[in-house]
Specification:
By secondary structure, the chain is an alpha/beta fold. Helices cover 32% and strands 23% of the residues. It contains 17 helices and 21 strands. The strands form four sheets. A nine-stranded mixed beta sheet has the order 5-4-3-6-7-9-8-10-11, sandwiched between helices. Strands 1-2-15-14-18-13 form a six-stranded mixed beta sheet. A four-stranded antiparallel beta sheet has the order 12-19-16-17. Strand 10 and strand 11 (275-282) form a beta hairpin. The N and C termini lie far apart (63 Å).
């Protein structure tokens, strides 16, 4: 039996200590390429194993099987619905199937497999064909008004991020036009379609970025969760798909009687190398995003006059400021065979000072080792170059140079870096890294996470080192070395008074 399958082709970019060779700076980690299977990428296919259904979903519905019509609009091989037939007496299966099961899929091949599986459970092929149909349900939602029993949607919908679709999958762009403009993934279109058609109950297997993501999921949560409660969730932080490391959760949705903007409170099982139960509170003030301790901190401790932060040095800026001063710059867009390319440029005095006086960069993506976690690092120490230039497109997973105003001394920059990384690890510890976005499964001791640039800027805004007195800096230096979080908070709070 196949395991869950979904394919997302994406090169992982990992940063570590410099290793120079022939004009390139090597990332001492490795890059990973997943097998290219065009159809999986094109449709966002990920076939669900029957084991997932039996272990995590069936116990929740086993006592109400005759109360609903069980539908899956993205059925694949039917593994989220058809196993219900195993508990229906053989003499009653055909009648149950006629009234209680409807399955759809966009691919003819999947529909054929689904029909064959229904036949295995004793359903005649002519009856199976009536209730298992080819249909693009993202664009052409079925009419369930004539069903004898209310629909209950259990599904593992396609998920394919819009950024990937724009570059590689033109056929899917049609789903994101008109009323769907602004959504970021195919699974979000599936959710909003169910809302528009007033479905009362759904169980979705979807990426955990639905709960924890920032810009990728803010809109769908804001639009969807005023109408639905999450009754329960199962969050997987280990690999359950064969062809992708994307982490998923099973969310049990139930429509509210009336739209409400009250916080949503639910309990979830979080499964990694151990299983824990945790309560979540999703507030509309934070786009219903889980993992709110970090957001509360950066909001409460934001400085009255924070540092001004800008990201990225572009090739256009380098060319506009040509001169006679030599700088060696890492090319963030030229990464091949484990190496970043670097080049030497001649710039004027103004840009030379700007680059030299801003020696820090943000690593937004965990590498998979403890030495390469997200955070702020020194460019020279990490890559052996003076700066990082973007020669093509700006990507959030590149190493990104940070430019800070007003100009800070090397000692102040070092203190700022150490503060940032300490607080980042503190929040990773108390939230189990939930304020960060899960990137993909890794065999590391921790789950790989992505740090947003907006999060980076907000945390830096809590540390107004340019306004501190020397004695305050010295006190903070000691507190940071001691990892005294409460002491650090007391100093930061005194700066706001």
């Amino acid at each position: 039996m196949k395991k869950n399958i979904k394919y997302e082709s994406q090169k992982e970019e990992i940063f570590s200590k410099p290793d120079k060779r022939n004009g390139y700076v090597r990332d001492l980690g490795t890059t990973a390429y997943f097998p290219i299977e065009k159809k999986r990428r094109e449709f966002g296919i990920h076939l669900t194993s029957i084991d997932i259904f039996k272990k995590f979903i069936f116990p929740e519905i086993k006592d109400i099987l005759y109360n609903y019509t069980w539908i899956d609009l993205f059925a694949g091989e039917g593994n989220l619905i058809l196993p219900i037939l195993e508990v229906i007496p053989k003499g009653k299966r055909v009648e149950f199937f006629k009234e209680h099961i409807f399955l759809f899929d966009i691919q003819e091949e999947m529909v054929k497999r689904c029909i064959e599986k229904a036949k295995y459970y004793g359903i005649p092929s002519e009856i199976a064909r009536k209730n298992i149909q080819i249909r693009d349900t993202l664009q052409n939602y079925p009419d369930f008004k004539l069903l004898k029993y209310p629909p209950y949607h259990i599904t593992n919908p396609p998920y394919l991020y819009l950024g990937y679709i724009v570059k590689n999958s033109e056929r899917n762009l049609k789903y994101f036009s008109g009323p769907n403009e602004g959504y970021q993934d195919l699974y979000q279109i599936a959710l909003i379609n169910d809302l528009r058609h007033n479905l009362k109950k759904m169980i979705y297997i979807i990426p955990t970025n639905f709960l924890f993501g920032f810009s990728v999921a803010n809109k769908i949560r804001r639009d969807f969760l005023p109408f639905y409660n999450i009754k329960k969730a199962i969050i997987f932080e280990r690999k359950i798909f064969e062809f992708t490391g994307t982490n998923v959760c099973i969310c049990f949705f139930e429509r509210k009687r009336e739209p409400s903007y009250q916080p949503i409170i639910f309990k979830a099982l979080k499964i990694n190398n151990k299983t824990i139960e945790k309560e979540y509170i999703l507030s509309p003030k934070n786009f219903y995003r889980a993992g709110g301790e970090f957001d509360e901190f950066v909001s409460y401790f934001k400085a009255v006059r924070p540092l001004k932060i800008k990201f990225y040095l572009t090739l256009e800026e380098v060319k506009k400021n040509s001169g006679s001063k030599e700088v060696k710059l890492l090319d963030a867009n030229n990464f091949s065979n484990g190496y970043f390319a670097y080049n030497t440029y001649l710039v004027n005095e103004k840009l030379y000072k700007k680059i030299k006086n801003n020696p820090l960069f943000v690593r937004t993506l965990d590498t998979g080792s403890w030495e390469g976690r997200v955070g702020i690092y020194n460019i020279k120490e990490t890559f052996g170059v003076d700066g990082i230039v973007v020669t093509k497109e700006k990507y959030r997973t590149h190493p990104i140079q940070i430019f800070i105003t007003p100009e800070l001394s090397y000692e102040d920059l070092s203190l700022l870096k150490n503060y940032f990384n300490l607080m980042l690890e503190y929040f990773r510890d108390i939230t189990d890294s939930e304020f960060l976005t899960t990137f993909r499964y890794s065999n590391a001791d921790y789950i790989r996470k992505y740090l947003g640039l907006s999060q980076t800027k907000k945390l830096l805004a809590t540390f107004p080192i340019h306004l501190m007195k020397d004695e305050e800096k010295q006190k903070l230096k000691v507190l940071i070395e001691q990892k005294n979080i409460e002491g650090i908070k007391e100093v930061l709070l005194s700066l706001k008074l």
